[in-house]
Amino acid sequence: MIYAAITGWGKCLPPAILSNDDLATFLDTTDEWITSRTGMKERRISHVDVSELAYVAAARALAAAGKKATDIDLIVFGSTTFDELCPNAASNVQRLLGASNAACMDVNTACTSGMYSLSVATAMIKSGVVNSAIVIGAEVVSKVMEWSNRDVAVLFGDGAAALYLEKSETEQGVLAESLGCYGESREILSVQGWGMKYADKKRILGDTSWAFAGQEIFKKAIAGMSQACEKTLAKSGLQTEDIDLVVPHQANLRIIDTLAKKMRLPKNKVFINIERYGNMSAATALIALVEAVQEGHVAANSSILMPAFGGGLTWSAHLIKWGERTQVISESEIALPDTTQTGLELVDELRRKP
Fold first, then answer.
1. Of the listed 20, 108, 252, 279, which one is catalytic?
2. Catalytic annotation on 111?
3. Which positions ≥6 away from 169 have C-beta within 8 Å?
4. pTM above the 0.85 mark?
5. In terms of CATH, what superfamily is 3-171?
6. pLDDT at position 252, please?
7. pLDDT class for 202, splitting at 50, 70, 90?
8. A Pfam family this protein belongs to (predicted)?
9. What are the percentages of helix, strand and coil residues in the chain, rounded to 5?
10. Across the strands, what pairs with 305?
11. Is 297 tagged catalytic?
12. Is the dihedral of CA 274, 275, 279, 280 positive or negative?
């Protein structure tokens, strides 16, 4: 049987930090208010486009796997904040990497985009269409944020992560997954003024407002991720106690805690980094996985469960069996261009734009 092994991993986080105290300079909020309701202390704000974040993360994943750009057969780029809709953003990553042999596609399922991209790449390797793939989850939400809206402005940040997948006959990679969507509730989490629906009003991008029904999203998130975890575990024949680590989408600490209690998971089995980055949408779960490996929470042959949800309202859960290696083969020297701007300075620029 053919599997899609994860043999490389990398992340790219913009250097500019936006703290809760920074947000309090232009919103009616405080560090205590944000922390108590979300678990977030700070988030990153990007000074470059999302393709550049994705490029750096992908280069680091390639180096971790000990591969060259020409080894890539496929690039699957998950995001909602692509530089352009045509041509696709994955082709820009191909160009930047020099991955001339790679087919390219974009995937948009909001916050689950990185995980859905992992499903796409895994399926294409298992079916024999390709032998290798780069999977990317990346986001620059700051550029479409409604910065005057406290309900959403405190939640989101920017970042990118990438995985390198390759054909293997050893049982590893994604062993089971469940994907779904509450399409009837799609309006409770949406960005209005963004897309061709608004083209006649000349609001394709930039003049956005957010619909965000917090309590309803909370309920749907718990229901969707719980359902996805149950289905995925049933497909794999495993029980909750067989899971070594749960790496959930980091949207809100209360959601994570509620899901953990519902699944009867001990705290030491749940990886959390939400306090450092907030919700980076498509990048969130993959960055959490990369950091879990880097920080030694993932051992050889670990069973990892990754539940996620996003706008749409999409939901998913993936069961991943890690391989033997948890250390990178090499490290990439590719990095973002320098910036002297702080997170608050970058956001102030965005707030001043008409």
1. 279
2. yes
3. 1, 2, 3
4. yes
5. Thiolase/Chalcone synthase (3.40.47.10)
6. 95
7. low
8. ACP_syn_III_C
9. 40, 25, 35
10. 246, 319
11. no
12. negative
Q: Encode pLDDT of 131-172 as tens digits.
A: 999 999 999 999 999 999 999 999 999 999 999 999 999 999
Altogether, the residues listed in the chain come to a count of 354
Q: Quick check: 311 pLDDT over 60? A: yes
Residue-wise pLDDT for 246-292, tens only, equals 999 999 999 999 999 999 999 999 999 999 999 999 999 999 999 99
Q: What is the pLDDT of residue 209?
A: 79
Cis upstream peptide for 313 (omega within 30°) = yes
Active-site residue identified among 47, 249, 297, 318: 249
Count other C-beta atoms under 10 Å from residue 335's C-beta: 11
Pick the CATH number of 175-321 from 3.40.47.10, 3.40.50.720, 3.30.10.10, 3.20.20.140: 3.40.47.10
Tell me the three state secondary structure of residue 350: helix
Q: What are phi and psi of 85, to 5 degrees?
A: -90, -25
Neighbours of 127 (CB within 10 A): 9
The residue from 104, 111, 181, 229 that is catalytic is: 111
- Do the two domains 3-171 and 175-321 of this chain adopt the same fold? yes
- What distance in Å separates the CA atoms of residue 55 and residue 208, rounded to the nearest whole number? 27
DSSP code, position 338: P
- Around 162, how many Cα atoms within 13 Å sit in the side-chain half-sphere? 33
